[in-house]
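Let's sit down with a protein and look at its sequence and fold side by side. Once you have written the record down, we can walk along the chain together.
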Amino acid sequence: SSGINAEYGQMRQESRGYLELQSADPTQHPLIEPNYLDTEQDRWEMRECIKLTREIFGQRAFDEFRGPELRPGPGYDTDAELDEFVRKFGDSAYHPSCTCKMGTDSMSVVDPVSLEVHGVSNLQVVDASIMPSVVSGNLNGPVLMMAERAADLIRGRG
């Protein structure tokens, strides 16, 4: 049987979560609160993603491939129902980044020149977490470039 699948998501959410240490014990997991869909703008964007996907796949060109909609499916039509669906089935994928951004402002954690954690000597962070904002493409290329830069710094070629 034929089928069509679509994935959608936001690249520039307004909602902000946080990561917090629960204790000084390094074996205790941190508290992670993603705070997804905290703003009306974020909820509106996800509803619009669903509506646009339905509109696109409702075109005649998809008639021979389209079966019944499985998700969200029947019963998810109003804004409140779509919000419920997104909260129940939504997840985070592909762009985990920006949890300890590099920069010089008060929200920055990593020095953009040395890649060291502000106030901590000889501790460098080199992964997607130091990105100041989420990229719209794949993370692989930018992270490889950061790693190359960090390797140069560590070898004294900075």
Summary: Helices lie at 40-57, 79-89, 140-154. The CA atoms of residues 3 and 66 lie 6 Å apart. The longest strand covers residues 18-20. The chain has a mean pLDDT of 90.
